[in-house]
């Protein structure tokens, strides 16, 4: 569901709704409405989101990834960050 994907991107990027609102130049309430599935995002919003986070564009539209081409999901990014944190913790 697109509402969950929008929130997942925001969580993976560790940004608040207000931060995403500022980045995409849309009202914070619009972000909240999309994430809670009160409203469906417009094509213009999806394009803005894809331009802001191109690594998630393919996943956002298809639900698939192409890691070798740099098209990842937020889940992959979170896992990569955790691996880096674990490596840093173990090297100290």
Overview of the structural elements:
The protein has helices spanning 2-12, 17-24, 28-35, 43-52, 57-62, 74-91. It is mainly α and 92 residues long. Helix 1 packs parallel to helix 6 (74-91) and helix 2 (17-24) crosses helix 3.
Q: Into how many domains do the coordinates divide?
A: 1
Q: Terminal Cα separation, in Å?
A: 41 Å
Please summarize the sheet with the most strands. none
* Tertiary shape: globular
**CATH 4th-level superfamily:** lambda repressor-like DNA-binding domains
Mean residue pLDDT: 91
- Text of the CATH class: Mainly Alpha
CATH topology label: 434 Repressor (Amino-terminal Domain)
Rg over CA atoms, rounded to whole Å, is 14 Å
List low-confidence stretches. none
Question: What structural class is derived from the secondary structure elements?
Answer: mainly alpha
Quick rundown:
The protein is mainly alpha-helical and 92 residues long.
Provide tags for this entry:
92 residues; mainly alpha; 66% helix; 6 helices; 434 Repressor (Amino-terminal Domain)
Give the topology.
Elements lengths: L1 H11 L4 H8 L3 H8 L7 H10 L4 H6 L11 H18 L1
């Amino acid at each position: 569901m697109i509402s969950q994907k929008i929130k997942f991107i925001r969580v993976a990027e560790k940004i608040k709704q207000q931060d995403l609102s500022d980045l995409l130049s849309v009202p914070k309430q619009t972000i909240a409405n999309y994430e809670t599935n009160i409203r469906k995002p417009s094509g213009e919003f999806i394009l803005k989101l894809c331009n802001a986070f191109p690594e998630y564009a393919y996943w956002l539209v298809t639900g698939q990834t192409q890691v070798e081409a740099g098209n990842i999901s937020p889940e992959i990014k979170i896992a990569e960050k955790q691996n880096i944190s674990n490596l840093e913790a173990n090297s100290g």
